Amino acid sequence: MDLMMFSAGLLTVMVSMAGGIFCIYKFWPHYNLELDVSRAFDQADYHTVIQLTQGKTNKLLPIDVYLHAARARMRLLQYYEALEWFESLLRHLDIKNKIRITVETEIADIHCALKDYTRAEMHYRTALSLAEEDPFANYKLASLLLNTGKPEPARQILRSLLKKNPLLAEARYLYAETLAVLGLYTKAIRHYGILNRAGEPILSFNYGRTLKALKNFERAAEVYRALLDSDNIEYKNQIIQEYAELCIILKNYEEGAHFIENALQHASDPQTILELRYMQASLFSKRGDEFQALIEYQHLYHENPDFKDLSPINDKWGYILAHKYLKYYFTSQVDIFEKLIMRMLPPGTIILRRSRQYYFCLYESKAYLMYRHILPAQARLVSEIDLLILQKCPNINLLEFWSLTGISEPYSTTGAEYRFLLYSKEEFLTHVKQIVNEIE
């Protein structure tokens, strides 16, 4: 610090930094003010900072007073007053003063808070015009660009920043997020992995989406579940939908059903509710409650006929709902289904194989395939059962194949010595209806 002049009780100080003038201010009258303001700011007593600096924006004050006065107002969300203090400081700073970089960046932050993103971008770029490689300003600008739908320029800034500063974890995280937004999931997971190995916990919607896109479904579900358990999460509606979909993919049907039911009780966004109800119907179908799924699809169709594939579903399968007794056949409740089919088949029939897809039953020299889906069975199932009979039941002379909508494509057996009878459509409906009427 070089003493330049002392006159009439006023001390004028010139501070040299890196060969340039850092600041000139009239020191002595404001010495106590600077101490009081700094002390109050350090103690997070922002109201006192405001009281001490009220009405002084046009005076020549120490730099720290300007900065603390502006930042205290920022902390209390008094953004326009904070702007006045920062702009007043800029008027008193030399054009080459490095403090300008910080001030321009913080002004940009205020405009971001005010959602004036055009001005925010302008001030970030002004800061970078003073110091092109400033990491903080570059990071802030990239973050703004990403959040305003400009991921490609954000990617370019971050890639350049990381080449010069590879250890900046926040920049690498933002870079991974940007790559995920651009759909570059393989590249994104590499940078998420670098952060994970460095001990940086990753918890974001885009991380979960990246894992899901790369078919790491279990880990994606873990990330989404952790996000849902946290407070004030972004993308909450999307995460709810993604997690529900993952429950279906992972066949966690009971968890998925409970989750969707709970989410519907708390959801308020109409689109989210619609998506959840559609997934709820899909989940019913996947777990075997296909009749209930059709009921839900039809309800949705009447409310939103143009949503997704509701119209073709209703056109193709809506007729089934007229046969209400089918709810006992196309159900995931094993006890109900078994009670029905054991009444359909001869007394003494045994169940040789149970699955979500079909039941394979035996009675003396007869075999029965009870197909559990509304959609037609595939021809390869016939081949599978044919092989099963050859290996386990060579004395079978008749196979009855029960499928509401038949078999989807031409099929053939291997030439085994048994007859093949397909019961579908009206024969299927008539027999199921008769048995249900007897039970009820």
Automatic annotation (TrEMBL):
Matching PANTHER family: GENERAL TRANSCRIPTION FACTOR 3C POLYPEPTIDE 3 (PTHR23082:SF0), TRANSCRIPTION INITIATION FACTOR IIIC TFIIIC , POLYPEPTIDE 3-RELATED (PTHR23082)
Pfam families for the chain: ANAPC3, TPR_8
Origin species: Brevinema andersonii
Gene Ontology CC: transcription factor TFIIIC complex
Name used for this protein in its record: Tetratricopeptide repeat-containing protein
Matches recorded under InterPro entries: Tfc4/TFIIIC-102/Sfc4 (IPR039340), TPR-like_helical_dom_sf (IPR011990), TPR_rpt (IPR019734)
Gene Ontology BP annotations: transcription by RNA polymerase III
